[in-house]
Amino acid sequence: xxxxxTFDNVTRHFGSVRAVxxxxxxxxxxxxxxxxxxxxxxxxxxxxxxxxxxxxxxGAIRIFGEDVSAIPPNRRNxxxxxxxxxxxxxxxxxxxxxxxxxxxxxxKAARYAKAEEMLNxxxxxxxxxxxxxxxxxxxxxxxxxxxxxxxxxxxxxxxEPLGALDLKLREAMQDExxxxxxxxxxxxxxxxxxxxxxLSMADSxxxxxxxxxxxxxxxEDVYARPANRFVADFVGSSNVLPPEVTRxxxxxxxxxxxxxxxxxVAPAGGTALAGPVTxxxxxxxxxxxxxxxxxxxxxxxxxAGTALPQMGETIGLTFAPGALHVMEHA
Length: 330
Ligand code: ADP
Ligand code: MG
Prior knowledge:
Layout: E1 3-14, E2 17-28, E3 32-36, H1 43-51, E4 58-63, E5 66-67, E6 78-81, H2 93-103, H3 108-121, H4 137-149, E7 155-159, H5 167-184, E8 187-192, H6 195-201, E9 204-209, E10 212-217, H7 219-224, H8 229-234, E11 239-241, H9 243-248, E12 256-258, E13 263-266, E14 273-282, E15 286-293, E16 296-303, E17 314-319, E18 325-326
Parallel strand pairs: 3-8, 3-9, 6-7, 7-8
Antiparallel strand pairs: 1-2, 1-4, 4-5, 9-10, 11-12, 12-18, 13-17, 14-15, 14-17, 15-16
This protein binds adenosine-5'-diphosphate (ADP) and magnesium ion.
């Protein structure tokens, strides 16, 4: 199958800044693909390279098999939903959505019919006459989505589209976006710095660190089998254990990770992992207990209602065989 988007050793430098630094990618057609990474790791630059608003310093980008280096943004069959929505404040919702079709020269009746269809899709059909300023943040987000989808892109790029919404609305929109993507079958490339968002929405994801891909895989791959320390720490804040600790726990002399939820509190003595409690953090659904273990700080998450140790009290931690994940790279 032809990939929707392919990066072949793509770089984009801004002076001495390597914003994108030798990225290889294959995004399957019809998939929900996430780019996850901290601020400044090169995610937006990758989207801009796909949309054509940015040109690579080196390497090649293909969209549905076609090298796009000479193809301008308006001929790439790709649309972007921006974090700040970038709506026209003086146009009403209907005209905002129909704008792209007007630019393409579509007659008024036809473009309004199409705009209405899109507003229906995002459940805003009653809002066509309003100005963006008269909408909530969530509604503006939907207008931005409708405005991008009206062009019938084969690839939709979304740059932190839910970043401005409060948690409850963000979770509702995550479900809606995912359902919409599945219904339309369009390839979504979704940029976020929020690991929960990426893990819950994506079919596969790339973890970015300083312009490079630290790991690429399914949510389960990157969460359960992080390839390196950066991924283990960034995705789900795992306990990252140096080689000597891994070995003391029965593994090889290599870096490893242990998920906080895979650990259980046990009496000190009889376990290789023990130490004084240095942190107790209430998380709502549970509490994170941190101990100063031999060679590393180790955190465990216990469910709400569990009897908690005192600060400074020495406790042990145990884990099921198989929970210790040995990483391929440091
Ligand atoms: P992200 O979206 O992951 O936060 P960006 O792709 O926006 O990261 O930026 C990656 C790096 O490239 C950052 O260090 C940023 O400052 C730099 N950068 C991005 N665009 C430009 C530009 N037009 N000129 C100079 N530096 C840029
Ligand atoms: Mg960005």
